[in-house]
Here is the input.
Amino acid sequence: MSGTVFSQGFLKKLKEKAANVGSDLITKKGAQKTEQVIDGATKKGNGNKDKSGKVNDEKRDGGANSTQKANHLASYSKFDFVPGDKIVYAENFDQDVIGEFPLKWFTNGSAEVVTVDGLAGRWLKLVSGRTLTPTVKFPPNFTFEYDLLVNLPVKTTAVYPAWQFQIYDGGDKALKLSYGGHKLNNMLNFKTRFPAEYADVKMDATEKGIVKLNTEWNRLRDFSRYYGGGVVHVAMTVQGERFRMWFNDEKVMDVPTAVALNHSFNQIQFEAAKVREGYPAFYVGNIKLAEGKADTRSKLMDEGRFVTTGIQFDSGSDKIKPISTGIIKEIAAALKDNAIQVRIIGHTDDEGGAESNLLLSKKRAEAVKKMLVDDYGISEISILTDGKGAGQPVGDNKTSTGKAQNRRVEFVKV
Here is the structure.
């Protein structure tokens, strides 16, 4: 499908198998599994297969031993991204049918919701063309995050396709999925290319239809460690005109005058690319837009309560994700500066049983306490913990956005 034709609803069933031997990325649709075999032999650090031939994600991510795990966590010690404290929009595709195009989205090409063996949650597999989110009003100051699964061959002589996405205001109705005949007003356009072992990232910014800024290419070295099915967390912060961006723990950009003043951003567009026919290069998931930046100190000290959705855990686990480092670091600083006692309270969405959610929420609160004590030297006796499970929802558990709002950690001054 091409031009400005929108495609939504049932798409073809996923049936794709690349020809050459290499790293395996297993995509599941209910009881059906489809194996994608990536070109070339698996490189060290990009994955190790078990006896079944599946990629062991822990080893692929450099987690084969405790020293490597410690180094991975230590690499986030300077990570200063702090997500906004009010979720405006979240999408993890858990309301959509596997094998179909997500509801309320738009495309002039092809995309479908899938699951990936060894990875939690659902992913949007971008097959071709441009894919556009529903309209959602962006706050003036916001944070935006998503996970990018990099399905590039570990070893190939082919030219790697680029990755591109945009944030823009396309009016109250869905923007045409073609630049022809449609003049964009304000836009942030991001391009990532993969010349070899590294990646280059740049941004073009438009204000009132006029180019405001073109950045230079910013290099991310050793990026090939994510090829063959690795996941990169992309995060960005907009405060006034200032723009900052991270790929995992590495800050890619910090530009003081990049964003259009008085923007009215309301949509996100992902541009699909493929290595070859039937072989998509990228998947996206865990999309989250939040308002502003959390004011940890004032909320905790003046209001006596601070709530964050920025402390993230592995699905169904109390294991804290490294991308939570920025917000936990800010909380630790607030506790060090003020001799107070706090109670950490964990909350979950309603996935699973009430009893298991209650236990999980308590364990997550304990995990946050342990990190504050062990990594930041906060006194153990100054922190109490509790958990409420899914018993005190603040959002609608029938939607992805509501579930994301409910998965939160609360800090209450005692």
Observations:
- DSSP finds six helices and 26 strands in the chain.
- Confidence is low (pLDDT under 50) at residues 1-73.
- The first strand starts at residue 24 and ends at 29.
